[in-house]
Design a protein that fits this description.
The complex is a heterotrimer of chains A (about 270), B (about 475) and C (about 325). Chain A has about 270 residues and is mostly helical. Chain A contains 14 helices and no strands. In chain B, strand 4 (about 140) and strand 5 form a beta hairpin. With about 325 residues, chain C is an all-alpha fold. Chain C has twelve helices and two strands. In chain C, strands 1-2 form a two-stranded antiparallel ribbon. In chain C, helix 3 (about 75-80) packs across helix 12 and helix 5 (about 120-135) packs across helix 7 (about 180-205). Chain C is flat. Classes of the chains: A mainly alpha (about 270), B alpha/beta (about 475), C mainly alpha (about 325). Chains in contact: A-B, A-C, B-C. Chains A and C meet through helix 1, helix 4, helix 5, helix 6 and helix 7 of A and helix 1, helix 2, helix 5, helix 6 and helix 7 of C.
Chain lengths: ~270, ~475, ~325
C-alpha cells in the first residue's frame, strides 16, 4: 500500500493525526477564548478574537513563574535519582548473581498488582519522621520511588540484551565492578536512559496529589499541577485560564518529547531485544 | 490500634536508620520561615477561591488596623481540604487560623485535639452580638468550651432560576410585560411546555448538569421541600425520626413528574452528562429556560455579563410552600489551631473576620447572607438578583437539632449506604430502575437500617442514645423550632 | 554421645554452607550496594504503605487520626457480598476486554505503517499519535467531557435531520453508550505507549530477514505472517501484559467523565473504591471509610494476582505450543 499510493497513506495518517490531536487543538484554541465563547463556540476550536491576555492572567493568577521553577527542579531531580537508582539496580539484577536475588525479583514483581493504599498517611509519616515535610526533597523522593519498579524492569531488560563480550574484554583489562558499570554499561544505555527519563519526566511534571500534600504548609513550593487549581473554585472554574495554564504546563513536556523521542524508541527497542 | 501503631513505629525506625535517608534529611529545606523580628505572621487557610476578593480585602483592612500582624493566606485545593488539614495537624504544621472543614463533624476535630477553646476571648459580651442560640453544645461548643462561631445566616440553599429572555420569547409574561414567575409544579410544567413548543424543540423548558451526580438531588430537594417533605434530601424527617423517601409520596410524585417532563421533551437532553457548570453556561445562553442552583450561580453570571434572569424558591403543588429549608441555630466556620503560636493575634483576626462590618461587606459583595440579621438588608444590595435572594431569607427556618437535646448523638457514626439517593435518582431518570416506588422504598430501608445499626452500635459502646433522639413529635414544620436541652 | 554425633555432622555441614554463603555474599557486596537504593525506596514507599493499608482493612476508619474501631473481617465480607462491587468488576473486565485487543491491533497496524523508513514525516506522525500519553488522564477527561456535550448536539442534529433517530441521545449520560465512549477515550489516551513499544519491537527485526524473504518471492502478507509475527512474539507478550495491567487500573478517565454513573453503568473497581474512601457527592450524611476502601482494593489486588498468574501460565503454554509448531 505504501509503495503504490503514498499520498493515500499520508492522507490517512494526517486525518487520523489531526483527529487524534483535536482535543489539544481545542484546548489551545480555548485558551484564547473568552468565557462566553468557551461554552458558546461548541466544537469550534478557534476563538473569535484571540484573547492573549488570558496567558498573562494565568501566569500571574497561578504564580506560574515560581511554580515553573519548582516543577522544573522536582522533575530534573526526580529524573536523575530515578535513572541512577533504576539503572544500578537493573544492571545488577540483569548481569550479576548474588544470594537473595530471586527474592528481590519476586518482591519487586509482587508490588505491581497490590494496591498502594488509599491513604497517603504512611508515606506522610515517613517524611515527617525524616523531617522532610514541606520541602521539595519529599516530593522528589516519593516521586522517584513511584517509578522505580517500572524503571528497574526496563533497565533489566536492556542490560540483559547487551552483548557480554564488551564486559568480558573490560574485565580482562582489569576493570572492576564500578568501572564496568560507569565506564562501559551506563554509556551504552543512552537510549534506555532517555526512555525511562521521559516516562519519569512525564509523570513528575504532571503529578498533582504528591506535590499538593507535601507542600501543604508552604504554598510557595507548589508545582504547576497544583497551581492549576487556583482556577477551580468550589462552584465555578475559570475555564479559559485553566486552558491557558494547561498549555503553559504541557508545552515544555511536549518539547522534551520532541527532543528525546528518537532515543526513546531506540531505547525501548534495546530493552525488548531478547 | 496498638498493633498498627507498633509496626508503623518499627518501620519508621528502620527507614530513618538507613544512611541514605539520613543523608537526604541533611539536604532538606528549612521547615518553617521564622517569624519576622518585628511583629507577627499568622498562617491562615481557607478554600475560598471565588470569595477570594472579599477575603483579600478583609486581610488588607485587618493589617491596616493591626500594623504589627501580617496574615499569610493559603487557599487550599477545595476538594482535598479535609485531607490537607488532617495531615497538617498530624505533622504539626497546621495554620494558626483556619476555616474548618465541613466534613466530618466538628466533634471529630475537637476530639482529635486540633482546636483551641476560644472561651478566654469569646466572652458572654462577645457572644451577645450574635443572634440568640448561636452557641450550642454539640454544634460549636464541646464539653462546655466554645470552638467556633456561626458566620452565615440561615438561607435558602437552592433556587429555581428563570431565564427572562427565554420566558418572554415563549410568551410567558404578565399583562404588564414582566416575566411570569411560576409558583406551582403545574406552572413549571406549563412554562416548560410553552418554551419547548414555541421554539420548535430548539429551546428546552429546563436543564441541569448531573455529571457530578449532584443536580438531580438538588431538583428533588427543592421541589419536595416545597411539597412539605421537611427532610428534603438532607436528613430524616424529624417528626418521625425516619428517612421517608418511600413512605412520603412527594418523592415518587416529583420523580413521576420529572419523567413526564423528560418523555415530553421538556428537559435539555444532555442534562445527565454535562456538569452543573456547563448547564449554568448553557442556561445563560438561553438553551433552556429554567435551572435549579444556589446563590453561587450569580457571581459567575454577573462576571460573564448575564443579568437577565429571575429567581424563586420552593415551588410546590399548591403555590404555597408546605415545607422550608431548615438550619441549625449556630454553626461553625473558623477556628484556631490548638498550637497557634500567637493566640491573641490569631483571635484578633478571627474577631475581625466575624465582625458585623465584615459581614456587611460579605452580603454587599453578593457572596451570601450574614449571621447578623441587620446585614441582610436588600436595601444595601446593588445587584437586583442578589436582592431577590436576600429577600428570600424568610424561607429558611431554624429546625430541630438532635445534638442540642442529647449531645451524645453527635458521636453516632452512620455508615454510608450504596446505592445512595444520587445513584437511585439517576437510575430512575435513565430508566435503569423501572419501578420508582420500589427503588425509593429500598433506599429508605437501607438508610433507616444504617441509622438503626449505628445507634445500636453506639449504645454498645456505652453512649446514651436511642432512635427517639431523632424524633421531635411536636415540630410544626411551618414554624421555627427551638430544641430544648436534654 | 550418639546425639552429639548425629547433630554434629549436620552442624558442620551447615557451618560449611554458611561460610560459603558468607563468601558469596562478600563477593557480591557491590551488587548489594547497587541494589540497595532501589530496595530502600521500594521498602519505604511501596511495600510499607501496602502493609499499612493491609492493617487498615480491619478497621472502620474515616482516615483522620488513628484507626480505633476494629471490625475484623467484616469489611471483606461486605465487599464480597456487595452487588455493586461485582458490577464494577464486570464493567472493569468489559473495559479491559475491549480496550486491550482494539488498542493493540490499532497500535500494531499503525506501527507497521510508521516503521517504513521511506515514509516521509514519520517522526511527525509518531509524535502526533504519542501526544495524548503526555497529558494526564484528569486533564483529558475534563476536555473530553466538555467536547462530548457539544459533540453530542452536533451528532444528534445530524442523526435527526437524516431521520435515523427522532430522539436526542445523551451520549455520556446514557447507560448503553457511556461505557463505550469511555473505552474509546481510553484507547485514544494510551495508544501512543503501545505504538512506541511495537515500533521498538519492529526495529529489533533485522532488515536482512525481510530481504531474504523478498528474494524468496514472499509477499507482504507472507513476510508479516512468517517474520514479523514470530519475531514480535516476545515483545508482544510484554505489551499485552503492560496493557492489561494498565487497563485494570482505569480510574481518572471514568471519574472525570461519568463519575461511575449513570447508576453504576460505568462504575469500575477503582471508582467504586474511591467512592467508598471519599464518600459520594451530595451524600446524605455519608462518612468516608478508608478501612472498607482498603479492603475492597486488597480484595481486587488479590483477584488480579490470581488472574495474572493464570494469564501468565496460559500465555506460556500458548507461546510454547506455537513455538513448537513454527
Amino acid at each position: 500500500m505504501t509503495r503504490r499510493a503514498p499520498w493515500l497513506t499520508h492522507a490517512f495518517l494526517l486525518l487520523g493525526g489531526i483527529a487524534w490531536l483535536y482535543p489539544f487543538l481545542w484546548t489551545l484554541g480555548s485558551s484564547l477564548k473568552s468565557t462566553d465563547e468557551f461554552f458558546g463556540r461548541g466544537l469550534n476550536p478557534l476563538p473569535g478574537t484571540p484573547l492573549w491576555a488570558n496567558y498573562g492572567q494565568a501566569w500571574q493568577g497561578a504564580s506560574f513563574g515560581q511554580y515553573f521553577l519548582n516543577t522544573l527542579t522536582i522533575t530534573v531531580a526526580t529524573v536523575v535519582i530515578t535513572l541512577l537508582v533504576t539503572a544500578m539496580a537493573g544492571y545488577t539484577l540483569a548481569r550479576t548473581e548474588f544470594p537473595g536475588k530471586g527474592l528481590v525479583l519476586v518482591v519487586v514483581a509482587g508490588t505491581v498488582f497490590l494496591p498502594h493504599g488509599y491513604t497517603i498517611i504512611p508515606i506522610f509519616d515517613i517524611m515527617d519522621a525524616l523531617g522532610l515535610l514541606n520541602s521539595l526533597w519529599s516530593i522528589i523522593i516519593v516521586q522517584s520511588a513511584g517509578g522505580i519498579v517500572f524503571g528497574t524492569f526496563l533497565f533489566m531488560g536492556y542490560f540483559r540484551a547487551i552483548d557480554h563480550s564488551l564486559e568480558d574484554a573490560a574485565r580482562v583489562d582489569g576493570a572492576g565492578f564500578h568501572q564496568v558499570f560507569w565506564r562501559i554499561m551506563l554509556p551504552l544505555s543512552g537510549p534506555m536512559l532517555a526512555t525511562v527519563g521521559l516516562f519519569t519526566a512525564i509523570s513528575a511534571w504532571n503529578s498533582f496529589f504528591i506535590p499538593l500534600v507535601f507542600t501543604l504548609a508552604r504554598p510557595e513550593l507548589r508545582t504547576l499541577g497544583v497551581g492549576m487549581y487556583a482556577f477551580i473554585g468550589e462552584n465555578s472554574t475559570d475555564w479559559t485560564l485553566l486552558c491557558a495554564g494547561s498549555v503553559i504546563t504541557l508545552a515544555p513536556i511536549i518539547a522534551i518529547f520532541l527532543v528525546l523521542q528518537r532515543f526513546f524508541v531506540n531505547g525501548l527497542a534495546g530493552a525488548v531485544k531478547q | 490500634m496498638s498493633a498498627i501503631q507498633l509496626s508503623r513505629r518499627q518501620l519508621l525506625g528502620a527507614a530513618v536508620a538507613t544512611g541514605g535517608a539520613a543523608f537526604l534529611a541533611g539536604c532538606g529545606d528549612s521547615r518553617q520561615n521564622a517569624a519576622p523580628a518585628q511583629g507577627t505572621t499568622l498562617a491562615y487557610w481557607d478554600w475560598y477561591v471565588s470569595q477570594a476578593p472579599w477575603v483579600d480585602n478583609e486581610v488588607k483592612l485587618f493589617q491596616q488596623a493591626n500594623g504589627k500582624t501580617t496574615i499569610k493566606k493559603t487557599t487550599q485545593v477545595t476538594d482535598k481540604y479535609l485531607d490537607l488539614v488532617a495531615l497538617a495537624f498530624r505533622s504539626g504544621t497546621a495554620p494558626d487560623v483556619l476555616l474548618l472543614p465541613t466534613k466530618p463533624k466538628l466533634e471529630t476535630h475537637v476530639g482529635e485535639g486540633w482546636l483551641m477553646p476560644l472561651d478566654k476571648w469569646a466572652t458572654p459580651e462577645w457572644r451577645s452580638r450574635f443572634p440568640a442560640n448561636s452557641f450550642v453544645e454539640g454544634v460549636n461548643i464541646f464539653g462546655g468550651k466554645v470552638y467556633s462561631a456561626p458566620f452565615s445566616g440561615l438561607a435558602p440553599a437552592l433556587q429555581l432560576y428563570i431565564h427572562n429572555g427565554v420566558f418572554k420569547e415563549a410568551g410567558l409574561t404578565n399583562p404588564d410585560g414582566s416575566v411570569l414567575i411560576p409558583k406551582t409544579w403545574d406552572d413549571i410544567t406549563r412554562a416548560a411546555e410553552a418554551i419547548t413548543s414555541k421554539s420548535g424543540g430548539k429551546v428546552f423548558g429546563l436543564g441541569f448538569g448531573n455529571a457530578q451526580k449532584g443536580a438531580l438531588p438538588w431538583l428533588i430537594e427543592l421541589f419536595c421541600r416545597g411539597a412539605g417533605s421537611p427532610g428534603g434530601t438532607q436528613s430524616v424527617d424529624y417528626r418521625t425520626g425516619r428517612w421517608t423517601y418511600g413512605t412520603d409520596r412527594n418523592y415518587a410524585d416529583f420523580l413521576a413528574l420529572l419523567l413526564d417532563w423528560k418523555s415530553r421533551g421538556f428537559i435539555y437532553p444532555n442534562s445527565m452528562s454535562i456538569s452543573d457548570e456547563q448547564a449554568r453556561a448553557f442556561f445563560s445562553k438561553g438553551r433552556f429556560g429554567m435551572i435549579v442552583g444556589g446563590v453561587w450561580n450569580q457571581a459567575p453570571w454577573e462576571e460573564a455579563g448575564f443579568k437577565d434572569y429571575s429567581l424563586m424558591t420552593l415551588p410546590s403543588p399548591t403555590g404555597t410552600p408546605q415545607g422550608f429549608f431548615y438550619g441549625a441555630p449556630g454553626s461553625y466556620l473558623m477556628g484556631l489551631s490548638a498550637k497557634a503560636r500567637n493566640p491573641d493575634q490569631a483571635w484578633a483576626w478571627l474577631d475581625w473576620f466575624y465582625s458585623p462590618a465584615a459581614g456587611k461587606r460579605w452580603v454587599q459583595g453578593g457572596y451570601g447572607l450574614s449571621v447578623y440579621p441587620e446585614n441582610n438588608d436588600p436595601a444595601g444590595v446593588t445587584s437586583p438578583t442578589f436582592k431577590q435572594y436576600v429577600a428570600m431569607a424568610n424561607t429558611a427556618l431554624v429546625g430541630p437539632v438532635p445534638a442540642i437535646r442529647n449531645p451524645e448523638i453527635a458521636k453516632v457514626e452512620v455508615a454510608p449506604v450504596q446505592p445512595d439517593l444520587p445513584d437511585v435518582a439517576a437510575g430512575i431518570y435513565t430508566g435503569q430502575l423501572k419501578d420508582t416506588p420500589k427503588a425509593l422504598k429500598e433506599l429508605e430501608d437501607r438508610l433507616n437500617g444504617a441509622l438503626g445499626e449505628a445507634v445500636s452500635k453506639a449504645r454498645g459502646q456505652g453512649l446514651k442514645v436511642s432512635m427517639d433522639d431523632y424524633v421531635f413529635a411536636d415540630w410544626d414544620i411551618a414554624k421555627p423550632y427551638t430544641t430544648k436541652r436534654g | 554421645m550418639t546425639d552429639i554425633q548425629l547433630v554434629g555432622r549436620p552442624r558442620a555441614l551447615i557451618a560449611g554452607r554458611a561460610s560459603r554463603l558468607r563468601r558469596r555474599i562478600a563477593a557480591a557486596r557491590w551488587s548489594y550496594l547497587y541494589v540497595l537504593p532501589m530496595l530502600v525506596l521500594l521498602l519505604a514507599f511501596v511495600i510499607y504503605p501496602i502493609i499499612a493499608s493491609l492493617g487498615y482493612t480491619f478497621y472502620r476508619w474515616d482516615g483522620i487520626g488513628e484507626p480505633g474501631d476494629f471490625v475484623g473481617l467484616a469489611n471483606f465480607a461486605r465487599v464480597m457480598t456487595d452487588s455493586i462491587f461485582w458490577g464494577a468488576l464486570r464493567n472493569t473486565f468489559f473495559y479491559v476486554l475491549l480496550v486491550v485487543p482494539v488498542q493493540l491491533v490499532l497500535a500494531l497496524a499503525l506501527a507497521l505503517v510508521l516503521n517504513n523508513r521511506r515514509l516521509r514525516g514519520r517522526t511527525l506522525y509518531r509524535t502526533l499519535f504519542f501526544l495524548p500519553v503526555v497529558t494526564s488522564a484528569a486533564v483529558v477527561g475534563v476536555v473530553v467531557q466538555l467536547l462530548f456535550s457539544n459533540f453530542g448536539d452536533v451528532v444528534n442534529d445530524v442523526l435527526m435531520s437524516i431521520g435515523l433517530t427522532d430522539e436526542y441521545v445523551d451520549w455520556l449520560g446514557d447507560p448503553s453508550f457511556a461505557m463505550i465512549i469511555i473505552i474509546g477515550v481510553g484507547i485514544w489516551h494510551t495508544l501512543g505507549y503501545n505504538l512506541v513499544y511495537f515500533l521498538a519491537g519492529l526495529q529489533t527485526i533485522p532488515d536482512e530477514l525481510y530481504e531474504a524473504a523478498r528474494l524468496d518471492g514472499a509477499g507482504a502478507l507472507a513476510s508479516f505472517r512468517y517474520i514479523t509475527v514470530p519475531m514480535l512474539r516476545s515483545v508482544g507478550v510484554v505489551i499485552v501484559l503492560l496493557s492489561v495491567i494498565g487497563s485494570f487500573q482505569v480510574f481518572d478517565l471514568v471519574q472525570v467523565l461519568t463519575n461511575g454513573g449513570p447508576y453504576f453503568a460505568t462504575e469500575v473497581v477503582n471508582t467504586y473504591v474511591y467512592h467508598l474512601a471519599f464518600g459520594g457527592f451530595g451524600g446524605t450524611g455519608v462518612e468516608r471509610d478508608v478501612g472498607l476502601a482498603s479492603a475492597a482494593s486488597f480484595f481486587y489486588g488479590m483477584l488480579l494476582i490470581v488472574f495474572a498468574v493464570a494469564q501468565a501460565l496460559f500465555l506460556r503454554v500458548l507461546v510454547r505450543r506455537r513455538g513448537g509448531r513454527a
